[in-house]
Structure formats: C-alpha cells, structure tokens
UniProtKB/TrEMBL annotation:
It comes from the Bacteria. Pfam families: LysM. Residues 329-376 form the LysM domain. It comes from Coprococcus comes. This is LysM peptidoglycan-binding domain-containing protein. Residues 258-323 are annotated as: Disordered.
Amino acid sequence: MENKFPKNVRQIGNVSDTPKIYVEDYVDTFLNQICDKADKEQAGAFLVGKKEVTEGQECLYIFGAICMEFSGDENEIISQENFEKAEQEKKEYFEDGTMIGWMLCRPGVRMVIDTKIFNTHEKYFSERNTIFILKDNAEVEEQYYCYKYKELMQIGGHYVYYEKNAAMQSYMITARKKIGVTPSEVVEDKAAKDFRNLVKERFEAQEQKKTSRLTYVASVFLVIVVLIMGVTTLNNYGKMKSVQSSLEFIRNSIMKQGEEKTQKTSGTVKEANEQQNENTVQSEQTNDPQTEEQQDPMPQQGEGSDSASTEEEKVDDSSMSTMQEMSEDIYIVEKGDTLAKISKKVYGDSGHVDAICRMNGLSDGNLIFIGQKLILP
C-alpha cells in the first residue's frame, strides 16, 4: 500500500527542498519546552523517526524525541555512553523508530554550524538525509539542516503534523523531571492547544461542508419529486376533466331525449281526453230527456273506465317505447370493452369509432371505463 502524506499539517517556512521534513506536534512542543527551560545553558534532544518515500517524494517523519545528556569533555558534545543510553530509551518508548538526527539549543550563541557540531553529526548520524536542528530560545530562532553530499545543508522550511502519538505523550510525562516542567505543561502547552483547536475547526468545517452538500442534494431531489407530482397531477386533472365533460354531455343528452318523449306522450294523452269529452257531449245531446231517466248509468261508467284504462295503456306503451328507444341509443361499457369492440357489437364493424368519439366528446378513444354510458350515433 502506497504511503500518503499526513492530512492535518501546518507549514513552517518555505518548503521547497528535498527531503520534506514532517515533525509531529507533540515532538515540536517537547523541543520548545526543552529550550524554554534551558535558560542560559545549552540543551539538546535526539530525534526519532523514519525515512519514507511518499507519493514519489523523499520524506522524513519525526515522531519522537529523547532528552540528551552532554559529555563532560569540552572537545565533544555527545559521548558514546550518552548516545547508547539514548538508544536504550528509544527502544523502550519508540521501538518502531530509528535515530535520524538531533537538536541543539544554545542561548545567545551565533546560529552557525561550527566544527564541533559538524564532527558530532558525522560521528553519530553519517547516513544521508539525517537531520540537525539548531535553536536559540533567546532570539526564538530555529534552523533545520539536512546531511547530504557530506555537508549539513540548511532546509528552508518544514511541516508540523498532528496525529495520535501516545508514545511521545508517555515519554513526555516520564521526562518531565529532567526538563523541569509540570505534567500539565508536558501534555499540553498553548501552542499545542492552538494547533489542536485549528485542526478541530478544520474537521468541523469539513463536516459542515458534507452536511451542506447532503442538504443541497436532498433539497434538489425534493424539488424534482414535487415537480413530477405536479406534472402527474395536471395530467390526471386533464383526464378527469375530459371524463367529467363526457359524463355531463351524456347526462344532458339523456335528459333532453326524456323531455322530448315525455312531451310526445303527454300530447297523446291530452288528445285522447279531448276526443273522449267530445264523444260524451254528443251522446248527451242526442239522448231524449225522458229516456235519459230510464237509462242505467253503470254502462256509462263502464265505458268511461274502459276508455281511461285504454288511454293509460297507451301512455304505458308510449313510455315503454321511449325507454326502449333510450336504451337502444345508450351503451354501457363492460369489462374488456374498447370503442372498436363496441362498434362491432352494435353496428357489426369498427367503422363507427370516430362517430362514437364525436358523439360523446372523447378526445382519447381509449379513455373509457367500466359502467360508462356512451351515446350511440
């Protein structure tokens, strides 16, 4: 699996050299604490980390630091005994790392690489791309150097990165007596807090962006759903209006035909009643007054009843014929019917489909439903 650069970093200086140097935040804090407590005396630390090629670039990752004890000899900075002791501490706290450099803080001394520093580095860190850090706490300055081409060459900048670093935290708590700081100063200082707050804010901003994107996508999806529902509703509304218009047309046609049949029937009954009255008047005029008293009125009542019943039968026959004609002009749609099938049933062919559509105000010949009443042309 290819190595990747740390995600949460802050840049110090101009990072344009090779290799790229990444210092873990707890290590950077610990080195600053050593310098702050050094006062007028020099202080130092061994750097623990690893060398890797990340995305095609040479990189140094410094994730540990061990307090340095100086030699009593004025001609050397580090003794062999002190170096071996630091190696043992490295194995105890940072077993996955290697010694890849060192840091020296000299208050009030010029920030230059002298012979003693160069000889010390070549003795203990002669491998290519090892690191030396020179600090001056009085002037709050620091310089990073990389050993390559048999020289300590200054590096323009580096990165400070943040990751969970339990090993360094554990060592800082153990070493607090050596550097003379309290546990709270060891675990957290102001710079570390500020950086962690910055990382936290960055995480929150990223989460907020993700939430905003999800909200935007959900809103767009909701708008699309509403538009689809609106279009569907409009289409259904148009179909409903078409069906409603057809039913209204059918109802008006049936009522109109019923009124016409009723008028014809009532006219027939009226003429029959007038004829009956004329016959009655004529019979009364031709009868003699003397014989009128001797006549039995029952036959007249019987004749009147027969006449009335005859007229009622005529009305009933007329109403039945009207209903029959109406039923013959109306077709009720059954299951599986189409206009073509209805045309074949009624007329014997499918050539009357257009006529049925026009008669019933149908814009779509397939838009019929079971129980619908169609007027037949």
